[in-house]
């Protein structure tokens, strides 16, 4: 039983409230122009909230999302955000997709194999 608990704990996406707050500020400055102020009402970017976002990332890992975001966003200035800033933006996006922040911050490591929580 303990082994199952540790596996579950390892497969949980973690992010902190501090990351959500930092991510919201970065999002407003860098991402909102394309993805919209509600993360789903942008004129140029795909929705980052709701079923479209969850379905788009279903079956993928946190590392894949971190790497994709770092490599491709913002499209007019790719790789301009640090990996820590990307992790904060993703924490903000997760918070707007009904995931709860905790005390453990998200690691900005793109090699993470943690599955995203949408089935």
Radius of gyration: 14 Å
Mean pLDDT across every amino acid position:
91
Strand content: under 5%
Sketch the major β-sheet. Answer: none
What fold name goes in the CATH topology slot?
Answer: Cytochrome Bc1 Complex, Chain D, domain 2
Structural class by secondary-structure content: mainly alpha
Number of strands: 0
Cα distance spanning the termini: 24 Å
- CATH class reads Mainly Alpha
The total tally of domains equals 1
User: Helix and strand succession?
Assistant: HHHHH
Regions with little confidence, pLDDT below 50 for 5+ residues: 1-10
What attributes characterize this protein structure?
about 0% strand; disordered N terminus
Describe the structure.
The protein is mainly alpha-helical and 119 residues long. The chain has helices spanning 2-10, 17-35, 51-57, 62-72, 83-95. α2 (17-35) crosses α5 and α4 crosses α5 (83-95). The protein is globular and about 35 Å long. The model is unreliable at 1-10 (pLDDT under 50).
What is the strand and helix layout of this fold?
Layout: H1 2-10, H2 17-35, H3 51-57, H4 62-72, H5 83-95
In short:
With about 120 residues, the chain is mainly alpha-helical. It has helices at about 1-10, 15-35, 50-55, 60-70, 85-95.
């Amino acid at each position: 039983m303990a082994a199952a608990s540790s596996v579950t704990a390892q497969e949980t996406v973690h992010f902190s409230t501090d990351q959500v707050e930092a991510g919201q500020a970065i999002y407003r400055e860098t991402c909102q122009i394309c993805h919209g102020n509600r993360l789903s009402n942008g004129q140029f970017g795909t929705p980052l909230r709701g079923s479209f976002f969850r379905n788009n990332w279903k079956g993928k890992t946190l590392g894949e999302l971190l790497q994709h975001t770092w490599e491709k966003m913002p499209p007019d200035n790719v790789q301009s955000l640090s990996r820590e800033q990307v992790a904060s933006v993703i924490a903000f996006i997760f918070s707007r997709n009904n995931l709860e922040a905790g005390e453990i911050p998200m690691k900005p490591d793109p090699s993470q194999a943690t599955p995203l929580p949408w089935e």
